[in-house]
Amino acid sequence: MFSANDIKELRETTGAGMLDCKKALQECEGNMDLAIDWLREKGISKAAKKESRIAAEGITEILVKGNKAILIEVNSETDFVAKNEEFRNFVKYVAEVVLEGNVKTLDEALALTTNDGTLSDTVVNITAKIGEKISFRRFQLIEKTDSQVFGTYSHMGGKIGVIVLVEGANEEVSKDVAMHVAAMNPLYLVREEVPTETLDKEKEIIKEQLLNEGKPAERIESIMVGKVNKYYSDVCLTEQLFIKAEDKESVGTFVKNNGGEIKLMVRYEVGEGIEKKEENFAEEVMNQING
User: How far apart are CA 6 and CA 140, in angstroms?
Assistant: First the structure.
């Protein structure tokens, strides 16, 4: 009556989940046009219309189970939906599925089995149900040894999520570090992680600034040493001044004084790096009319 290719074609045309497409073809005896109408009538195919929209709101979610932890970001179009309980429960479900799936890439994660078929199908279905584009954007799965601890921190209801991995220290110290990462947004863990081209560009900028300030050419190199060290203290976690320290103690020193060493940090801020679509009022009205 219909083939797997028919299901695939209907899915690509409508954006509906695999099981919904199969049911639609069953109900319509394999007629593709009737199946498309059936999905539209059920409100399932509307997810396809939302693929071009920008989903830059949403939340992060952290899940820790034993020696594994995961940080994910799932986006929505509006902050209103990001606060919706159904959306938040969906995000928790995604974190659980991916943590248990123990995968490395987003493609592998979206291919994991769920009650809807795959996690990709589940995303499409929740998009159709909630009524705006939902996007599972990224995740990082981390495993630790028994001598290591996770430090986690979620800020502003999940707008920022942080996991740090610390060797040797306790959970309280690790959480303090995670809070610092959330607040100060370091770009790198240690200075060795700063890309050579990034550092070279920064040095060029510093040199130009010093020359424009009228500093003697013969003193430029010696002055730059201090300026470059200041740059490291701005962008590298271990060299930043610890926000909870009463004296001028770096994060790295704070952790070391508590018997630990920071091995890894992951910080997600919702929507970072996503270009939000700019629309003028007339276009917005027309979009609503054309629905």
Answer: 35
Let me know if the fold of 4-50 is the same as that of 53-143. no
What are 80's two structure tokens?
């209103």
Domain boundaries, the chain: 4-50, 53-143
Per-residue b/e over 265-274, b at no fewer than 16 CB within 10 Å? bbbbbbbeee
pLDDT in tens, 229-256: 999 999 999 999 999 987 889 999 999 9
Q: How many helices (H) and strands (E) does the chain have?
A: 12, 8
Q: What is d(CA 52, CA 49) in angstroms, rounded to the nearest whole number?
A: 7
The class level of CATH for 4-50 reads mainly alpha
Q: How crowded is residue 284: how many other Cβ atoms within 10 Å of its Cβ?
A: 10
Question: Could you report the per-residue pLDDT of 181-239, keeping only the tens digit for each?
Answer: 999 999 999 999 999 999 999 999 898 889 888 988 889 989 999 999 999 999 999 99
Spatial CA neighbour of 59 closest among 141, 129, 155: 155
For domain 53-143, the CATH class is alpha beta
